[in-house]
Write a structure and sequence with these properties.
Fumarate Reductase Cytochrome B subunit
Amino acid sequence: MFTTDPFATLAGAVPPGFMKGFLILMALAVVVGTLVDILHKGSARYFFANFRNARTKKHSRRLGGGELAAIAVQTALVDVAASGEFCNPRRRLAHLLTMYGFVIYLVTTAMMVFGEHRAGLVPMLWWIGGLMVLVGGYWFWFFIRVDVSAEGNSPFRIVRADLFVLSLLASVTLGLLWAATGGGARVLFLLYLLANAVLFGSVFWSKFAHMFFKPAAAFDKRVSRADGTAENLPLQSRDDPEQQKRHSMELLQNAPMDMGLGIKREAPRHY
C-alpha cells in the first residue's frame, strides 16, 4: 500500500487526463487567487514603496548588492527554511512538520499524476509527507493554537481564519484515507477532490497566500534594520540611555532590566 501509486487505480474510473487537468486548474487557482490578493491588499505596492522610502530617510544608509544578497540568504535559511520567527519551540516544530510535509506531499502528488510513478520511493514519500502534515496540523489545531491553549476556547470553534489549515487537513486526511482503501472508495475520492478545490480555490479568503508574503515581509524587516530605518521602531534595548529617555513615565526611565520578573512565574502559552 505504501509503495503503490494510489492514482493508478483511477484508470477507467475517470476520463484520461482528468487528474492532470485538475492539478493544472488548482495551480492556476493559486496563481489567480494570490494575484487578486496582492491587488486587493496592495502588498507588493507596500513593500516596494517602503523599500523606496527608506532610501530617502536621513538616518538610512545604502546597502550594497553583497549585503542585500547576504540578507536574502539569511532570510531564506532562518525565516523561511527554519521558521525562525517562532519563539515557541513546539509551534516551530509543528509548523516545520506541516510545511515540509505539505511540500513533499504536493511535489510527489504531481510526480505521480504527471510522471506515472506506479510504485517505489515516490508513493512512499507521498505517504510520509501526508503523515507529517497530519501530525503537525492536528497537533497545532488541538494543542498549540493561541485561542485554544491561551484563551481557553474550544478546539472546535471555527472562524474564517481557520479556512486554510482546516481545508489542508481535510485534503490530506481524505487523500490518505482514500489511498488506504486501495483507491476503491469513490465517495472518499470525491470528497478528496472537493477538499482540494476548497484549499486551492479559496486563496483570496484564506491564509494560503501568506507563504508568499511572509518571506517578503521577513526580508523587508531585515533590510530595514540593516540600513538603520527599522521602520521607525526603536532598535535600542531598555537599558540604553537614549531608549530610556523615550519613556513618558519617570518610573520606567530608570527601571532596571530585570524589573517585573514575577510575571514569568507562569510560562506563557501563546506565540
